[in-house]
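Q&A log
Question type: sequence-to-structure
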Amino acid sequence: MDIRQLKYFLAIAQEKQITRAAKLLHMEQPPLSRQLMLMEEELGTQLFERSRKQLTLTAAGEMLKERAEQLLLQLDETIKEVKEIESGVRGTLSIGAVVSCVSILPKPIQLLRETYPQVTFKISEGDHFIMGQLLEKRSVELVISRLPFETNILPGKIEVLPLPSDPYVALMPSSWAPASEDKSIGMEELATYPLLTLKTDKTTRMHEQVVNEFRRHGIEPTIICECSSVAIIMSLVAAGIGATVFPKSTLSSFPLEAVTMLAIRDADFQSEVGILWLKDHRLSKRAQHFIECLLSADSES
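Response status: OK
Response body:
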């Protein structure tokens, strides 16, 4: 028995006559009678009491009618849900983000939920290497990362959409911050403070950018700690252990009163940011909508 036969059966039950049911279904009467006979043979029971005027459902027919209506309703709802998932109306979007890019997520998520409130999210965070693993396993569909993306995945396998760059700023304990009307500091003065840098065994780009900028000014910074965690570095800065140089947006994820942000007067180096996905992976509509919201959020900021 298949869906088509159930629809035939329900039409007969509704019209109580083969001729009228056939007309409703836009088919000839003999094939419809044949389908009803095949259903009764398959089920081993009679579905209708036959009289000269009309067909009346048997007890077995009544039960089949009830179940068939439920099945077809569930089928229609399932088809609708599948189409909604494909169009991005519902379903779960899995996103990865390196920790220093987490602050980028709230606005596009808010915009997406305003339009598609039934879309849910699964968010993972970690360094470039972890995000690369999740992307390759398809555990996440999109990754927001600092660039270049330091991963084992071959660059030719990744699609990268650049986002607005993020200027580096100095972050230091508020009690250390020099008096400055424009809330800025020079590289030479910054080098007098003990520094904390973000670095792991596999991701070194941000550390190298900061160190190279000091060296471009002919200064060798005093680095007292290399750490793999943005959160730990921020807590150490707040505790008065040292200063750091991070992309400006990082501070919005860690709004600590004990930390002061200062522009760097004589340096203009930026952290490049992008959203990434696998080239051979067809993006879901949810992911496409998220990218649109991300670009929209950037244009508004």
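Response note: The longest strand covers residues 158-173.
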